Amino acid sequence: MTALPDGVAFHPGFIDTAGQSVLLSELRGIVKAAPLFTPEMPRTGKPMSVQMTNCGALGWVTDKARGYRYQPDHPMTGKPWPAIPVSLLAIWNAVAGFPAPPEACLVNFYRPDAKMGLHQDRDEQEFGAPVVSVSLGDDARFRIGGTEKGGQTASLILRSGDVLVFGGASRLAWHGIDRVYPGTSMLLKDGGRINLTLRRVTRA
Ligand code: SIN
Ligand code: FE2
Predict the structure, then answer these.
(1) What's 162's DSSP letter?
(2) Is residue 191 scored above 90 in pLDDT?
(3) Is the pLDDT confidence value at 163 over 70?
(4) Residue 147: what pLDDT?
(5) Which one, of 116, 4, 147, lies nearest residue 51 by Cα?
(6) pLDDT by residue (tens digit) across 112-124?
């Protein structure tokens, strides 16, 4: 593994097996209230390979007509997003180094062939807060570069229970998921990977 860029902090195994199971059962409740949906790329309407939902006061959504945005309600049900579980708020408090709580938790669900192209997280108004990313389920290869498109990148394997923080000089780093490795975790009965990204959206 190449050295991680400045501003990236990796906490392998931050959440133990018991903690992962608790988080998973909380997520089941969230998905029941706020069903997974298939996001679409702006303008083209091309479906993304991941499925998404959110918890928190604001949720990140995207569709053909209106593109990338945060909104307080679920795009299909119109209901407010469920609250962020206290276990996730505790993780933010432990690793974010930021005085205000996160407002959004994007839940990404990856089936075995899902991936996520290189992108920047830049739909927030508060770039002083890092992005805190929690991985559950199957391993995945995460790629992160600098803040300029097309620069050098480093990759690392994210496993169930790992927490990755990107802030500071890496807050606007390009990043994505090259691939998921099916069958590498027993956490999810039917396999797949869940990634949770906690973000501050409005200025703190
Ligand atoms: C994302 O950048 O939204 C997801 C990253 C990941 O799945 O680890
Ligand atoms: Fe992202």
Answers:
(1) -
(2) yes
(3) yes
(4) 96
(5) 116
(6) 999 999 999 999 9
- Indicate the pTM of the whole model: 0.97
Q: Are 178 and 155 in contact (CB under 8 A)?
A: yes
Report, in this order, helix, strand and coil percent for the chain, each rounded to 5: 15, 35, 50
Class of the CATH domain delimited by 8-199: mainly beta
Strands (E), 78-152: 104-110, 116-119, 131-137, 139-145
Q: Which of 170, 195, 196, 199 to mutate to test the pocket of ligand 1 (most atoms within 8 A of CB)?
A: 195
> If pLDDT is split at 50, 70 and 90, which confidence band does 2 have?
low
Q: What residue ranges do the domains of the chain occupy?
A: 8-199
Per-residue b or e along 63-72, where b marks 16 or more CB atoms closer than 10 Å to that residue's CB: beeeeeebee
Q: What is the phi/psi pair of residue 194, to 5°?
A: -120, 135
Protein residue closest via CA to atom 6 of ligand 1: 195
